[in-house]
Amino acid sequence: MAKKDDKDSNSNSVIAEKESKEKKELSIQDLPGIGPATADKLAEAGFTDLMSIGASSVGLIVEATGMTETAVKKVINAARDSLEMTFMGAEQYDEKRKNIFHITTGVKAFDEMLDGGFESSSISECFGEFGSSKTQIAHQLAVNVQAMKNEAGEKGICIYVDTEGSFRPSRIRQMAKGQKLDDEEILRGIKVARAFSSDHQILLSEQIDKMIKEGLNVKLVIIDSLTSHFRAEFIGRGTLADRQQKLNKHMKTLAKIAFVHNVVVYVTNQVSADPAQFFGDPTKAIGGHIVGHNSTFRCYLRKSKKGSRVAKLIDAPNLPDAEAIFMVTEGGLKDL
Ligand code: GTP
Ligand code: MG
Questions:
Q1: Longest alpha-carbon distance in the chain
Q2: What spacing in Å lies between the alpha carbon of 161 and ligand 2's midpoint?
Q3: Banded model confidence at residue 75, pLDDT cuts 50, 70, 90
Q4: What pTM was estimated for this model as a whole?
């Protein structure tokens, strides 16, 4: 009798343990086929929690660990299951979307076109010819994001990856003063790195995840320009596929940062027309489908009358195609 009781209580405790294990968040080593050595490899590649694994593609984890595709699929599915990253009710999805925020451009027409400004949890791309104001928008967002406080009252931080040497603290000061903000304080809220090659750019973007996990309240990541190093380094048709593959991987890293940490990612891109040649379409972004498909929001910028600039929304999931006109003034972007 006593034995039976023992057995019953034992099986009950097994059930209780299983339930509590299901409720408790799993760690990476609880995933199928992941031992300490593989967990280390994953960590080295930046996969330090279940969310990063659940949001990853199979190829990236195969590359990081040397596991087979089949094994990796099991790992990703287990991570997704434990995080309930599969189908969810649309009302639940709506709940998740409530955390999404927008960074204002400071221009009423531009914000209206974007339904409130540049949206978190996705990549927004502005492309256009030289002087079309891609970099000015980047500077303005770096200032404006800082008004976004988290629950602890900390301001939103901007991470700025500058690939062309066009970041100007003096320009940030002007824009801060344009809104009567403390310019020193605003400069402290921007973490800048100059990227000297596409590899360096990729490396820097991979560090951002770690900076956020260490507690930096990052709300905006800027890559200005996304494509210039790739364009310069990969010349000729033979290397085009390599370039596109690398660019694709880079954008997946950025998309993951945007999604996992709910931040705004703003990237700039050039158009294919080269002023030194007669060919090329001045309205066509470089990077082709890879960049286009990885950007959720795309704006084409062009110069217009009397120094104004026009932003045209050309690709957005739930917004109509529209145009917004603005001016770049000393104090920042303004309505016409
Ligand atoms: P590339 O990087 O060369 O492809 O161009 P871009 O699209 O990044 O151009 P950028 O954002 O640098 O825009 C330049 C335009 O902004 C200039 O043509 C100026 O009209 C304007 N601009 C830049 N700096 C200032 C400034 O300090 N004051 C004012 N009023 N306008 C500025
Ligand atoms: Mg620029």
A1: 94
A2: 12
A3: very high
A4: 0.79
Q: Is the pLDDT of residue 292 over 60?
A: yes
- Cα 298 to Cα 114, 265, 269: the distances in Å are 10, 12, 10
Give Cβ neighbours of residue 108 (< 8 Å, ≥ 6 apart): 335
Q: Say if residue 225 is preceded by a cis peptide, omega within 30 of 0.
A: yes
- Average pLDDT over the chain reads 87
* Pocket probe mutation, ligand 1, options 105, 107, 129, 135, max atoms within 8 Å of Cβ: 135
Pocket flag, ligand 1, residue 136 (CB < 6 Å): yes
Beta bridge partners of 160: 192, 222
Instruction: Quote the DSSP letter at residue 149.
Output: B
* CB distance 328 to ligand 1 below 6 Å: yes
Instruction: Please indicate whether residue 130, judged by its CB atom, sits closer than 6 Å to ligand 1.
Output: yes
Q: What is the distance between the alpha carbons of residues 202 and 136, in angstroms, rounded to a whole number?
A: 23
pLDDT at residue 280 in the model? 59
Closest residue by CA, ligand 1 atom 9: 131
User: Which residue CA neighbors atom 32 of ligand 1 most closely?
Assistant: 328
Q: Quick one: pLDDT at residue 84?
A: 67
